[in-house]
Each structure stands twice: as structure tokens, then as C-alpha cells.
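I have been asked to look over a protein record a colleague put together. This is what I was given:
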Amino acid sequence: MHYQQHLAFGDLIERLRQQEKTLQFCVYGAPQDTPLTLQTPCVIEAFSQITDDDEEIYPPYVIQNGLEFWFSDELLEDVVMSALHHKPTVSNTELLAAIEYYAERDCFMSFD
């Protein structure tokens, strides 16, 4: 993966499933009025910077394209790895549900 890479959210999930991380990143996308799907486009970009005045400065590419922060790589990795630990055959649709569950509740979804 590389910064400013565009891909479908399902492709991102597939890459996380393979545990082939090559950089630290955040996932950004267009402001959403509809639920996230496996086909929803997203962008891989660097983390924002925090100034001494606690101002958050997003990467120029994110600002220029009107993107918003969706997820950090660490959060997505934690959710995917937890799901795979509990259900090795978990589908990408189930992983998407687990990511949304965590984003809404700040806890892991049960696969038992």
C-alpha cells in the first residue's frame, strides 16, 4: 500500500486480512450519508499532525479532496485480527459489520 492510494473498502479489508502491512496509515473518504459498503471508495493517507496548540492538521491531499477521517490502521487491524481469532472463516461482509460495530460501540463484536 502507499499514501494517496484509492481502493474499495472491501479491498482494504482483504489486505488487512493478509496482514501485509507496509506503512502506518489512516483511512479517509468522502463524507458519508449512506452506510459503508465493501464497494465504498476510500483513500489511504498519513496520520494528521497535532500542533502545540492541539490543532489537528490533516495531510494536504485530504484537505484538497474534501475527505474526512474514517479509521486508523491500528483500529482496523485490531478488529480484523479479533474477528479472525474468533472465526477464522469470517467473511469480508462480516468483517465490515465488525468494523462498524466497533466504530459505534467501542467494543468488539462477538462471533460466538
Summary: The first helix runs from residue 9 to 18. The mean pLDDT is 93. Residues 5-105 form one domain. The longest strand covers residues 41-45.
